[in-house]
Amino acid sequence: MSDDKRAVRVLILNTIAFTVCFAVWTMNGVLVTYLVDRGVFAWDKAMIGWLIGIPILTGSVMRLPVGVLTDKYGGRIVYTILMLLAAIPTFLLSFATTYGEFLLASLGFGLSGASFAVGIAYTSVWFKKERQGTALGIFGAGNAGSALTSLGAPLLLRYLTNGDANIEAWRTLPQIYAAVLLLMAVAFFALTHSKKVEHGQTRSLAQRLEPLKYARVWRFGLYYFVVFGGFVALAQWLIPYYVNAYTMSIAMAGLMASIFSLPSGVIRALGGWLSDKYGARAVMYWVFGTCLVCFVFLCVPRMDIQSPGEGVMADKAGEVTFVDEGKVIAAGITYPLRQRPESVRHEVDEGTIVLPTFSFWQEPVVNVGDVVVKRQLLARGITHIYFQANVWIFTILVFIVGIMMGIGKAAVYKFIPEYYPQDVGVVGGIVGVIGGLGGFVCPIIFGYLLKWTGIWTTAWMFFFVVTLVCHAWMFFVVRRIMRERTPELSRQIEDSNGVAVMEIPAHMLADRPSAGAEVRKHSNIG
């Protein structure tokens, strides 16, 4: 069999195995919500956030050591062992009866999330640099495993429990997931081929970890915190979000959540192709910019607010001689009033409202025969603000965010084999750790923000702030690189206010590892 055919086979099996591992990794998003909703366990929002996030923690922190092992021993053996080990706590989850037992089992099966570090390193050694972005994008489509869980697990739970009649049958679900992991491990080892990074066994541990001292690696990690950590967190958090904010069933919530997670996983291949063609940094500008716009709209919660508005005061003292909804007459002066509009929206509305609506009116606070003094209030003003937060508009915005995150995930990992071709496992591992930690801490942060404020949209406010930091950091780093390496060109493209126009030269000058790649690799400014 030719190397090209082997590469294709490895890529296909890598992607399938990653899909299975990702489905297992995000299992708690459905399972925990189901168990709490059915009253099997009485866990609050913060406890749910921990259970959703704890498998993500294991998968995240294990990515670096797993990446190092992959560089040294090769992806075939490491991937197989990882799936076999993850299958054990997945099976043991079916025997959990307390919060502590559930937490420990979740901590164990979270090892399946470290499969990403193996797959990235194992895939990259089979493809040339000009095809790595596309290949890694295809591999990353395994993120769609979360959508398979979001869609399939609620239906499977309903089938296993006979429509909730036998609720304890939920324990069969993790057993099925464990069996699939076991079968996938056997098939993967039997059908793939061994290949390691060149010089992978002769380098010391210190040499392998050397790239971690560069700021660029940690910056890539923060990008991945948003696009991957955010994806993992939302793929699970959206299920309780839909259940609580839009009073959906878990099955329907899983379907709606899959509108976010399924395209985001599949579109990653397109993100790899775009990164190969236009450069990863140019793609990331679009990703962050689009997400910021969507987050602004998603931050606005559903609301039905009535607030004091502009009132009507008496111009002079005298007796009130007439009062109705349209006017007040006092001391011989007629004061017209704004009447309550018929179109004032209420909390329950069958129509579709895209933007918030504002209504203003005035209501009399005096009666006929009252004697008022100058500047006394005759009618109080009322301002009514209503925002429907329509579920379909919400879902469209979430869908766009998912698409952008999918493209962004591929773009971030396009950087790694270009800048660190001999350290894909290590660098990919630490970037994956930081990104995976996003998937761990975000549900916990969401849970506490919800507990403190009672507002579900605080999750989007959090993402807006973090994404803005990433976007600004990327802009200023690229600007500094340009000024240091091409000062004359930088001065020529500045406008009269001294603001550099970065978009066009940024990815051309700082993103492509052509001439001077080794200089960029060991530079700490990028």
CATH homologous superfamily placement of the largest domain = MFS general substrate transporter like domains
Please provide the count of β strands.
7
Helical fraction equals 55-70%
What form results from the Cα inertia axes?
elongated
Instruction: Tell me the name of the CATH class of the largest domain.
Output: Mainly Alpha
Helix count from the secondary structure assignment: 21
Task: Give the CA-CA distance, first to last residue.
Answer: 41 Å
Major β-sheet strand ordering: 4-3-2-6
Biggest sheet architecture: 4 strands, antiparallel
Strand fraction equals 5-15%
Order of helices and strands, N to C?
HHHHHHHHHHHHHHHEEEEEEEHHHHHH
Rg computed from alpha carbons, rounded to a whole number of angstroms: 28 Å
Structural class per helix/strand content? alpha+beta
Mean pLDDT: 81
CATH architecture of the largest domain: Up-down Bundle
Low-pLDDT windows of residues: 493-526
The CATH topology label of the largest domain is Growth Hormone, Chain: A
Overall domain count = 2
